[in-house]
Amino acid sequence: MTTQQPLSSRPHLGQVPDKVTADGLEDKWGGRWEDAGTYSFDRTATREQVYSIDTPPPTVSGSLHVGHVFSYTHTDVVARYQRMMGKEVFYPMGWDDNGLPTERRVQNYFGVRVDTSLPYDPDFQPPHTGGGKSIKARDQQPISRQNFVELCERLSIDDEKQFEALWRRLGLSVDWKQHYQTIGAHARKVAQAAFLRNLARGEAYQQEAPGLWDITFQTAVAQAELESREYPGFYHRLAFHITDEGAARQAAEQGAPVENGRDVYIETTRPELLAACVALIAHPDDERFKPLFGTTVTSPVFGVEVPVLAHPEAEMDKGAGIAMCCTFGDTTDIDWWRDLDLPLRAILRKDGRIATDVPEWITDPAGRQAYEAMAGKTTFSARQEVVDRLRESGEMSGEPTETQRQTNFFERGEKPLEIVTSRQWYIRNGGRPWTHESTGKDFNEELIERGHALDFHPEFMRVRYENWVGGLNNDWLISRQRFFGVPFPLWYRIDEDGTTLYDQLIIPDEADLPIDPSSDTPHGYTEDQRDQPGGFAAELDIMDTWATSSLSPQIAAGWLEDEDLFTRVYPMDLRPQGQDIIRTWLFSTVVRAALEFGELPWQHTALSGWIVDKDHKKMSKSKGNVVTPMGLLEKYGSDAVRYWAASARLGVDSAFDESQMKIGRRLAIKVLNASKFALTMGDDSGEVDLDASHVTQPLDQSVLAHLRSVIDTASSAFAAYDHARALEVTESFFWTFCDDYVELVKERAYNHDGAWSDEEAQSARATLALVINAAVRLLAPFLPYVTEEVWSWYQEGSIHRASWPTLDELSGPEGDPTVLDAASAALIVMRRVKSEAKVSPRTPFLAVTVQAPADMIPALEMVESDLRSATKVTGTLTLEESASTPDSGDDSHETHSVKVADVTLGEPPAKRKK
Prior knowledge:
The chain is α/β, with parallel strands linked by helices and 914 residues long. 37% of the residues lie in helices and 18% in strands. It is elongated, with a radius of gyration of 36 Å.
C-alpha cells in the first residue's frame, strides 16, 4: 500500500547540485514517478479513504490545445492536494475516441468515406495518410463501414499516444494504469447494458417523429448540441387565396392583410417549403383573423387547399400576424402540427434536397409542374425556382427584403439544421412530462433537486444547470446515423412479407455484451437470415457520443466488470469540466446516474472558464485561434505553464498570456535557489534543522507567524476548491520571504565572524529550513517538478506523497507578524535610497534615520542588528517616531508609514574581480 511518508524533523542534506536549474526536470522526475508508482491507486483503500475523480476524457481528434492544459491543470492541483491530505486518489484518464470528430478526422486524414453497400476488404490500404490538407468529399474513396471503423481505431491509437506524452510532460499525476477508451470493449458494454436497462424500465423508447437534422453529417441532432446563430435570409410577402369571399370581406374590415378582396398575405423566409404547407396559423385572440378561422385558403404556385386555424403560440405582432405552417420549417411548425393534428406533408430529404416524386396532395397541373421543376434540388436552388414562379404569377408582393434571423445549427456544423421525420431513440431526461417510478416524482423536478444537492464550484454556475433543466422541451435524442460509435444492441424481426417490424425487438442477454448487431447474429437465428423475410434486421444507428460519455464515472470505476473497484471509488468525489458543457456532459451524467442508481454520480463539480485570445474570443479548433502547448512546455518549462493555468480561478475566463508563464518560470527558479541557500545553512554534520523550538528570535518567530497564516488560508482555499487563492497567498508569502526575510537574516545565518551568538544563528537557520520545508509542499500541487527536486535534496520519498503542512509543525512561541512587516518596510525604503542614488547595494550607510509610527518602533528595535547587517549600516542607525504624514512634495523615502531621512552614504566598495 502506498501511504503518506513520515517527515523527519532532522533530515540530513544529500547531494545538492552546484548549479541548480529547472531545465530537464520533466524527464528526470517523470520516469522516476512512473518507476516508483508515485501516483498509483491503492486498491486496498476503503471508500472513506479514497478521493475519486471523474476525469474528462479529451476528444481524440488531432491535437490538444492550450485550453486543455489550462483546465486539466486545475484538476491536477486538486488531485495533488488531496493526495498530500492523506487520500488515496483515484485519478484515471479516458479517451473520447468515438463520434463525429474522429470520423471527420479520419475522412480528411485517409481520404475515405463510408458506403454501407460495400463489402469489407481485409487487405484495404487507404489512399492517403495525412498531409495536412482536407480532402473534399467527392475525392474521398468509398469504403465499407467495417474498414472505416478500423481506420478510426488506428488513428485514435496514434493520437492517444501523443496526448499521453503531453499529459505526462505537463505533470498530470494520473494513474496511467487506470485508463479507458469510450469505444473500448468495457465502455461499449457499459453503454449497451445501461441502455438495455433504460429500455426495460421504460426510460428509453423509439419514436418516428420530426426532429432536427444535419444535412452535412447526415444525422439527427439533440437539443443539447444546438447553437443559435445569426443567418442571412430574405422575407417574402406571399398571397394565399381565400376561398370564402364573405370571410375575406369581414377579415379585411377587421384590419387583416387582405388585398384584392381574396388574398391574405403572409411573410416567410422559407418559400421553398410552400409545397409542404398544411395550414395558416394566427393567434386565437387576434380579431383580424377570427373571420378566417375554420375556412380554407389555397397556396400560391401549388394551389393546395389548407385550413386557417388558431394557435396560442402564433405571434400577433410578428410579420403579418398570420403564418404558414409547413412540415417542417422550424420547431414551432412541429408544435403546431402536433397540437392541431395536422397532416404530414414532408418534401425535404435527409440530404437537404427536395424529394423527387411529386406529392399526391398537389393535384393542380400547374402546381405539379412547379414541383417537378424544383424536385431533387437543394433548398437554395429550390427557393430560387419558387421565387421566380411567384414573380411570374404575381403572388409575391414586392421584392424579397433582407433580414438576419436566428437559426439552429449543429454545434459542429456549418449549415442550418433542417427538420426531417425519422425513427430515433430517446432517453427520458425531464424534457417531457414523466414520473420516475423509483422516486414517484416528476423527473424534471427530481433533476432540479439533484442539482441543488450537487456542490458547484464556483457556486454561480449552478444557475446554468437549473436554467437548462427548466428550459427542456424534449427528451434526449441519443441515436445517430453515423458509423464510428457504440452500436445499439438490438435487432428487429422481419415478417414473411419482408417488412421490418420496428416494434418487435430482439434483445441480447446482458452477459453477451458488447455486441455489434451489424455483424453479430441474435440467438435463435443464423447469419443467412439477416435482412431476409422471416429473419432479422440489425439496428444500424449508433449512440450519440454523449450517451457513452454520460457514463464516464461508471466506465472508469469498473461497473459491471470490477465490482471491488466500483465499491471503492463510486460515487465519485469530483467532476471537473468546462463550463460550456454543463448542458451536455454534466447534465446527461446526472440523468444516467439518477435512472440507474438513484443518486448523484459525484458530490462536487469544478467548472473551468475558457481561454480567450487577444480579441477575447474563446480559443477553439473550429475558430482557428488555438495555441498548441508542447512548444510552451519546452520553452518555459511545465511548472511555469502550470503556474499560468493555476493562477486562474474556476469559472473565470482567462487570457492566453505568456508573460504569466515567464513569471511562473522565475518563481520556479527562485524556489530552487532559495531552497539551496536555506538548506545549506546547517552545520558541518549536514543536518537540516526542522525543530521549531530552536526558533527564538523575534524576526524569525514573526516569519513563522506569517507562515502559519498562509498554511491556514491555503488549506481553507483548497478545501473550498479555490486553488488560485491558495497559490496567490503562498506565492506572495514566498516572495516576501525571499526578498525581505532572507536578506535580513543572511549574515546572521552565515555568522562568519561570530557577530551573533550560536542561539541567534541557529534560530535563523532553523527558520530558513522550516519555511522551505513548508513552502515547497504548499507549492507542490502547482510546481511539481522543482518542488520534487528540492525535496530530494534532504527528504526520503516523493514530496507528492508527503503530508500537507500543518500548524503543528510550527508549534512554539507565538511570534508577532508585525515584526516582519516593520522590518520589510524599513528594508524596502533603505534599499530605495541606494537605488535612487544609483549606487551599489553594498554601499554603506554612514548615518541614517528611519522614521516610523510609534507602534512600529519596538518592532524595529528588535530587528535592528539584522537591519544593520542587511543594509550595510556602518555608522549610526537612528529609529525615531514619525511626524504627521508628509505633503506630496516631501522628498523623503517612504513605504506605507516608514520613511528614511538624514541619510549619509559612504563610498561604494571596490568592484569584485571576476
